[in-house]
Task: structure prediction
Amino acid sequence: MPKMEKTALQNDSNEAESGAHKPETPEQTQENQSSCLDDHSAVRSVTDLIEIVNEFSKLSIAHEIVVNQDFYMEHSVLPPNSLGGRIMETMYKAFWDHLKVQLSSTPADFTAALELLKEVKEILLSLLLPRQNSLRNEIEEALDIDLLKQEAEHGALDVPHLSKYILNLMTLLCAPVRDGAVRKLESITDPVQLLRGIFHVLGLMKMDMVNYTIQSLRPYLKEHSIQYERAKFQKLLNKQPNLLDCTTKWLTKTALHLTTPPSSSPDSPSSSSMAHSSPNWAVDNPQLPRSTMVLYQGYLNLLLWDLDSKEFPETLLMDKIRLQDMGSQLKQLAILASVLLVARSFSGSALFSSTEFVNKLKRITKALVEEFNSRPEEAMVSVSEQVSQKIHERLKDMGLTALSSEKKASLRGQLRNIAKKENRVRSIIDQRIHLFLKGCLVHGVQESLLDFPVGLIFIKEELTKLGWKFFNLMRHNQQVFSPYYDEILKDIIRPAPAQETEVESI
Result:
């Protein structure tokens, strides 16, 4: 009988609608981890690799539960036209067809039915709470497999009666959301179809119990997750001593960028400004150790990480997809803020004092820039046409002077230019977004909101939400891996001259 333990990590519909990707599935996680692990020569055998990947998988699930409030588990559904989907469908059909033949034979053969009842019993017992001892004893007695085998040998196994008993238990144990599914089973008269339906709904109930357990244990897991994740990682590091190679390269490159003047001129900042926004940024923030400032800059650089690079830091491998999603969202927010800033300069404050109008422009722009990564020029042409038209119509509706042909053409041109990386408005917006995120890491989100950057007010809600996600994720990572970061940075960052002099004098 096929098992039901395969699960997939999912996120809620709100995040999906906002354009964010779903969290990694176990298959994606394993693929990302394996690609990183394959680059390390310390893996001595296939057995070692399998063990390490399994440890990473356990660590990933625990990490996901803690950092993703919307995490839940559900059955993985293979695409029906895929090879795996066809194989699973064939296996399931063969089992249920075999069960039907056995029960229809004379005398009836209960071999497959007994195997199914055994698994159903295990699932029912797994749904019980620790205090439900009397119900546990009742199930053990009613579904005593040895006794059922004896009944089957004498042709006295009453499958319909057992199915009815199981349905009554399911009605008692299921969550309210499953009441309708259980009621539908009560109208099925065919014993094979009924058992098939029971097995399917029990699988859903099992996932319900798993998710209930996750929610119940989340506060406890949060309390102990730092020690747990660090211990698991140390275990992996013991097996694979060069597991921190990519992390070391990442921090070394970050420290070098912080002390190297940017090659581009201040008047034409590029997307690399996140790494070069202030060469002396670590020095200019004496309230925190220089090593901490390098680490924070490293976190920010990950939002612009090259997707083709295989040298992603091992300590953040579990959050690779999450960080890529954040980077994509930041890019869209920068485009959105740039569009609104340019539009406001052409239409004045009268239009943009209307929250309704601003929200309409935001909805239009968000929808049109979804294809920005693949077709930036085409996306911005569509944005320029729609936004200029809406502004023109709104000005006329308010009895104000509509845009002249020249102004409309100029507005469209400036909006189209936002597609270029070197666009002045977009570059300024990029820098202000990055400075806000830096402030979130250094001072906290609440304090950073008190000095919110000028020009980003129209995306304040979206940027604040993203800032909290980034802050919480990086703070958790810092708490878990700080001993390793400190050890790496100790060899990278030279002491400040004043500190060196003080040490020498002592």
